[in-house]
Structure formats: C-alpha cells, structure tokens
TrEMBL record, chains A, B:
SUPFAM superfamilies: Chorismate lyase-like, Winged helix' DNA-binding domain. It holds the Pfam family UTRA. Residues 17-85 form the HTH gntR-type domain. This is GntR family transcriptional regulator. InterPro entries: Bact_HTH_transcr_reg, Chorismate_lyase_/UTRA_dom_sf, Tscrpt_reg_HTH_GntR, UTRA, WH-like_DNA-bd_sf, WH_DNA-bd_sf. Gene3D superfamilies: Chorismate lyase-like, Winged helix-like DNA-binding domain superfamily/Winged helix DNA-binding domain. It comes from Streptomyces rugosispiralis. Keywords: DNA-binding, Transcription, Transcription regulation.
Amino acid sequence: MPSLTSVLGVLDPTSDRAVFRQIADALREAIDKGRFREGDKLPSETELVDHFGVSRMTVRNALSLLQQEGLVLSEHGKGVFVRPRPPVRRLASDRFARRHRDQGKAAFTVEAEAAGSRPEVDSLEVKEERPSQDISARLGSPRKVLARRRRYLLDGRPVEFATSYLPLDLARNTPIAQPNPGPGGIYARLEEMGHRLDHFDEEIRARMPSPAEVRTLQLASGVPVIHLVRTAYDAEGRAVEVCDTVMAADAYVLAYQLPAN
Amino acid sequence: MPSLTSVLGVLDPTSDRAVFRQIADALREAIDKGRFREGDKLPSETELVDHFGVSRMTVRNALSLLQQEGLVLSEHGKGVFVRPRPPVRRLASDRFARRHRDQGKAAFTVEAEAAGSRPEVDSLEVKEERPSQDISARLGSPRKVLARRRRYLLDGRPVEFATSYLPLDLARNTPIAQPNPGPGGIYARLEEMGHRLDHFDEEIRARMPSPAEVRTLQLASGVPVIHLVRTAYDAEGRAVEVCDTVMAADAYVLAYQLPAN
DNA sequence: GATGCATACTCGTATAGACGAGTGGGCAAG
DNA sequence: CTTGCCCACTCGTCTATACGAGTATGCATC
C-alpha cells in the first residue's frame, strides 16, 4: 500500500492557509483524484494526527469540513468513509400525464421497480386538519383540509416525505380519504369526480434540512433537501390539491421541459 | 432586557442528549420563537460559556451545528447573527418566452430592477474550448464549443454563476461570440440566424457547494446550491445551446407549470 | 476636527488530555 | 462449534488553555 505521504502530501508551514483547511484540501484532492473511492475508508483520525503532526481536534476540524461538503460520512466505531453516490431518481415533467395513470400500482412503485429498486411507502397518515396560512392561501382559503402524509423509501432508504392537502368539501367521504385511494392515485379519483385536471404549478427550493427532516429522511450531514410545492388546478381554474414534498437532494434530479413559445 | 435563562433555559444534566445539542436546541428554539430575529446578534460565545457553565469548544460545537443548518452566520470580530433571509428571485417557467425577449436589456437586468434591486453582471468570459464529456454529449458531440461565462449579482451580492456552451460551427463569427450579444440575448441571435427555438430541457439538482463555488458565490456555510442544466433545442430537434448554472439556493425559487395532458 | 493608537471585545485556530460509546476480532470457556 | 467476554480500535463528547486576528470604541495626540 502507498505511504500516506504519497497520497496526502505534507503541510506547508509557510502557508497562511489554516492547517485544518490544508488537511481538508489534501483529503479532498485525494478523493477527487480517485485515490480514495466511493465507500473507501479514509485513514483514521489517529493516523492523520500522526501523519500531519497535529492535534486530534485539528484533524476532526478538517474532517468536519469535508462532511459539511457532503464528501464523506463518519460512522461511529468504524471510521470515516467516502460517501457513496446513491442511485438517483429522475422526476420527469410528464410524470403526472394521464397516460401514466392507468396502472393498478402507484407511479412511485412502478417506476422504482423498473429501475431495479425495491420501493416502499410507509407512515401513511390521513386526517382532517386546519390548514397552515400558506396552504390555505394556495387552496383558496378552505376552513379545513384533508391531509395525506406518506414517506417513500427505495431499498430501505427514505428518500421523500410528502403531504397532500385537499379542500375538505371536495375530499370528504370519497376514496381520497381512504389510506389507499385506488389505481391511478388521487388524481385519477379527482378526475372521476368531475375535476378534470388542467395543469400543475410547481415551486422548487433547496435548503438544509431541519432536525426533524434529518430524522425522518435519515439524512447524512452535508445533504440538502429539495422542497417542492405542487398545486393542481382543474379545468375551472380551481386549486384542488397542494402537495408539499421534501426530498433528499442526493437522491433526485428533477427534469422539466419548457416550450419556447 | 430579559435574562439569558428566560430566553435559553438551562441544561438538563439527566438527559442523554449531548450538551452541545441541548445548547443548539435552546438557541434554535429561541430563534424559531422570535426571541432572536433576523440579523439579531446572539449572545457571544463567552456569554454562552458563562450561562451554560460549559467550555468554549462545547459552545462552538453548538453554534457550528446551527451554522450547518443555515440558521446563523458568524462574523469574525463581530459576533454570531441570525441569518437574514435574502430577497428571493423567482424564476418562472415562461422566462424564456419570445415575448420577454424584445427588450434592449438583458432579462436579468429588467427583472431585477422591477423588483427594486440593483443588478450587475460581471466576470464575463467568452472563449472557444473543448467541451467536457457531459456537455459534449448534450450538444451532439461537437469538437469544440463556444463558452460564455458570467456571474450575476443583486445589490452587490453574487447569486448565480452561469456558463453557456454552443457548438462552435454555429456560434463562430457571430454576435454570439461577442461579450455583449445584443438585445434579447443569444436566444434572439440564434433565432435571427434561422434556429427557431422549439423547447428547453432543464435538469435540476441540489447539493452543497464546492470550495470554488463558495468563493465565487460568496456563500455562507449552510447554504446549498441549485445546479441547473438547460438544453435549448431548435425546431429541427438540434441541441443548439447548453447552459450550466449554479445558483445560491437561498436566493432562488424556481417555478414551473406543467400541463396535465 | 481629524488622525492614530490602545484597548477590549468578538470569533478563529490550535494544543493536550480525558473519558464514553460503538464495532469487530480473537480467545477462552462451555 | 458456539457462546460470551475482553480488548483494541474507531469516532463522539467535553474540558482547559493559549494565542491570533478582525472590529469597534474611546481617548490622546496632532
């Protein structure tokens, strides 16, 4: 095995760059150059302390930088590893097209199985509640809404947490209020009930997750979330659903097609 | 002024939650409840040390947690502040519609001024180069491309860094190869040259910035980037441009409209 | 009044040491 | 062979201390 010096180099004591940044730079470069590959274990903190001749806090400082960048993840009792890039789920802009809605299964399940992954949906909760100010405004200020919460997992890993809100007068005592709304999902049910869907508006933000989101999505540090809010409009221009989705950003790429007009 | 104890509470020594997490929780809660507002200065590290009766490293550990979450930002010599939410730029899905293209000014400038901000475009670089594998594949494998790089600023703050790539056979010796391509931008020039634009594909990812991106966008820690890659197609189905854009995620919300088909 | 310095405050960087807790391998006992 | 324990190694948490560097303020000097 190659010596640590040949992989990581040495510190430049004349540099005004902070030592822990130099160490982070050395590790980052080694990872970029493929000297450490996805899933590889980095040298232990003790080894880095010995190699660079610095204190352990300095090494930990460097590693925490890389962790914030999402480059590595540390596992208690095992070591620090180059973070593997998970398979990415691609969301196409036609994913709600009517032609994708006839299957007996949910779109998420069909698509995941086609990609060779094992899909799961859990923590399904369906209840009536008072909408937040934001949701209320988007739905035309209904007094109460039906909220459908669920979490999506791929191969056991949570990747997405979504809540659909529908005006209660529209959803109460319909299949939409059931845990499983049936083939084609709630959009198929809405259309059966005479709300022909016209278009969707989507708003996309990216930010760091809240502690609660870190828990439910089991996010490694250094992984942002994509926050997507979709509003569905029927042919009369009424907002019939708002879907608030938080996705692990390292598991998704969103694709849209725009006309040039 | 209220006592620190009434604002932050005290530690629970019986809890198995790490002390620095308890401190972070206390500060987070105080911020959420509005006891510290945007731009407010948090108690100094020394004050927190005295209040909680812990060592400074523990306090710094707590603050660094909040910083990773994007909640606060620290300024050397001044203090730690609740991070102000910057004004957000909304990118609508019709932003490339032909009707927005007649102005003499660039779309970015018009839009920013309408929003009351002071727009700037800088570090404009136009050069011919060999495309990366990814860009090459998207453009139909041209041998060389014209690359147009620029950075956008709002009120002096960099918010976006973008590079447009065009096949060289299409762009060489045209206004597109000029630093300022003229009114309506390069899309207007492309259409004048007979490449009537048909549609755009956009791919969106979110991730933590690289160190280089932190520098050019002057990003605070805890701020992810949105990485957008747009491909423009003409009426013959040829990819005529790829635009690779990295945006400060706290400055943008992307909006799309999808037909329901 | 303007300039410049001293000072006190802020966070940034670094050292050295200690103990806790999760993991995995080896070894001894059953 | 299996079970269970010990041990070595890993990262996690915390203390105590020191000095450097950026900022703001006030005061003395010009």
